[in-house]
Amino acid sequence: AFLLFLLLITPIFAKTMRLTDLTIFNYKNIGEAELHFSPKLNCFIGGNGEGKTNVLDAIHFLSFCRSYSSSVDALSVRHGSEFMSLQGLYEHEDGTKEDIHCGLKVGQKKIVRRGKKAYRRISEHIGLIPLVMVSPADQVLVAGGSEERRRFIDMVICQYDPAYTESLLRYNRALQQRNVMLKQEEEADPEVFLVFEQQMAREGEYIFRKRSEYITELIPIFQEFYNRISNGHEQVELRYVSQLQRGPLLEQLTTGRYKDRAVGYSLHGVHKDDLEMLQNGYPVRREGSQGQSKTFLIALKLAQFDFLGRTGSRTKPLLLLDDIFDKLDAMRVEQIVKLVSGERFGQIFITDSNKVRMSGIVDRLTQDRAYYETQAGQFTRL
After folding, report:
1. Of the N and C termini of the chain, which has fewer Cβ atoms inside 10 Å?
2. What is the rounded CA–CA span in Å between residue 319 and residue 132?
3. Are 286 and 292 in contact (CB under 8 A)?
4. What is the DSSP pairing of strand 131-134 with strand 236-241?
5. Closest by CA position to 99, among listed 86, 114, 85
6. What is the reported pTM?
């Protein structure tokens, strides 16, 4: 058992990838910027609303073709502008390069190109540049509904398993069709119901299995990171909860059809799954302080990073840490920076509003870093 634990927490990275250059036009409050990055640690310093978070969001957009903070693409275009453009130049460990471009005109479909070739489907790009972002917005994972936690799980698996992405799409289409039929005044043909229920069951069983495997592997890695950050001050757990743990989904759907018609939507399926987050046996949302909740989320995201690096393309993801110093004591902050500046992690991007605080920690732990002062969407390398 101990050897298995060591295998789970020991990274098996085949290669690294780093972002060498980033060009931004009209992205949120950034009019124009050209940035050249350090291969290890890149620190952005500035007040609230100056643009330091937006540069991290632009890097996220190049990996996932969407903003981290909004699913509405038009909100990424700078006010008063008709388009936005992002270009990232990446370099693999073996020296091969990637040129990724994302462009969007207001009212038109966004275009994503790898080299000079546009993708037919944007989903084909997901996973090429693995990335993990830690943001104050992640608090919704603890305080929000189960939908947010399912999205967290799905975002990871989709980065290394394209078949999972397709299965999710098929499941959601069947779910939508079944829900439409449930809302109809006249009862639909039972045979038609069965067609969609069979598809939901087939895809749902696959999704359930993949989620179960992922959470089972994630738990020991997550607990290891949490213990290192907190010096073992709290005991934490993750529990995957799914209706499919009770039995076959098809049986639940067919026997629950009458009740589902009464409420007008499907009460059973993997779209109801959840991830319980516990500290000392109790929900973090109720028992944890702000600092403990933030430690929980950061450990969860670092475990996500570690897992992604050992699956799929086996490439160290880019790590984006937005405002991680807030609400954490000095000991926990130092433990986090010590962790991410080590060999286990690759290229990192950090934001903070306090230059003295950031440099006081970073300079003591690594010399491989660069600082950028951020003001009104402009960046100055210090």
Report:
1. N
2. 5
3. no
4. unpaired
5. 114
6. 0.82
